Amino acid sequence: VKQTPDSGYIVISLEAYFSNRGITLTHLSPLGNVSWAKIYTKPFGINYMPQGLTITQTGIVSLMRIDSSVILMKTDFAGNILWSKSFNTGNEGGFSTNFERTLLHSTSDNGFIFNTISGTRDMIIKVDSVGNCQWSDTVLLITKEVIETKDRGYLVLGRGQPLNVFTPAQVGIIKTDSLGLGTSCVNSFPISFTNDSLVATPITILVTSGGTQQSFNPPVTPLIVNVDTGCVNLLTDSNQTIDEYKNQITINFYPNPT
Fold it and tell me: Taking all residues of the chain, what is their mean pLDDT, rounded to a whole number?
């Protein structure tokens, strides 16, 4: 859910009925009433999954997976398609290994950055304002967040162990320049992309009111963190770990002191 310039909201969701399967955008007024709703489909598309949403001054940008394609789509504020791009990441599933979260952000050059998967590696893809790929990297961690820095580079934050692997948790922070270049934990991985042909169809969405709200104060406990250089450990298909080069150092976290 993202707020729109008219103080309303855009909701991206999955329409899962077999006869009407697709990705849905719904615009809600500030009071939660439906202004419009549209379903976006691809000819012969079967498996759909919404993965991200961001709002710009000129429209709505959505990240989704349709079958083996990773698709970035921009619409105007009435849901009309302005452009859509399909990215070949070399992974038939197109899912991020980070099932609980994918990301899509606007960048200071009016482009976008998002994550997906390529083989057994997480991938970061940077595109321009009309969805053309500018660079793409595989990263040796499971991506949780990408933050643009003041020098127009990026901090890639993630964790070092796949789901359901009972080993000590690791958090990785990778710094890149504006072209996605950085340490040996980041590797350039060029991909192809094409214009895609999505179809937008108006649909009717029913809204019911109700629900309750509760608040609580969770307990807070101190945490001790060890800081090392090197890439976080990931398990490959052969269950062999990637070597980690450890060297205790001092590290700066802007804007906090050393």
Answer: 81
